[in-house]
Design a protein that fits this description.
With 215 residues, the chain is of the alpha+beta class. The chain contains 9 helices and 4 strands; from the N terminus they run ααβααβαααβαβα. Strands 1-2-4-3 form a 4-stranded antiparallel β-sheet, sandwiched between helices. The chain is globular and about 60 Å long.
Length: 215
Amino acid sequence: MTLSSAELLDALRWRYATKQFDPSRRIPADTWVALEQALVLTPSSYGLQPWKFLVIEDPALRAELRPHSWNQSQITDASHLVVFLARRTIELGDLTRLIEATSSARGVPAEQLEGYRQLMQKDLVDGPRSAAIASWASNQVYIALGNFMTAAALLQVDTCPIEGFSPPDYDRLLGLEGSPYRSAVVCVAGYRDPADKYADLAKVRYPLDAVIEDR
């Protein structure tokens, strides 16, 4: 089934950063499976997928995280809470993992992918960009965040991206200290409370000709 241009734009106009969720409404299981697959299917540089996504379901843990999230009610009220994790470093083992996965998925001998592995190593492991991997990995995670929110909007699921949180406290509470991953951004998903005043506010966007330039 092909989505029309109008349907796509309607979904994007419908979505907003939901401030007040209905805590009684849960995302149906089949819808959530699709949203998880949207995360899995997110593109990334080199296809390295330098991320992990923690779905926090435990109400007690969510209550612990809330004070470290500027006490935002979405943390405990939304149906689902996802913590987007980024790799702290890219190592040779990460390259090997991708090469092996590619070899298996495409039926290509790993030896034929050696040039690609060397290209990644030269750029991300041995090259100057290795010093900026934290920033690079965060950029990749934000691609996943955007993909997730757009997919949610198409399924009429509300979301709110949250940068107002304390990554060190999240890392501590989630047992990430000393692990290969760190908390990068948070997103909640569920269904808006009818009383959320932000739902009906006009979107504030600069006109197309102010942000898109043809050359």
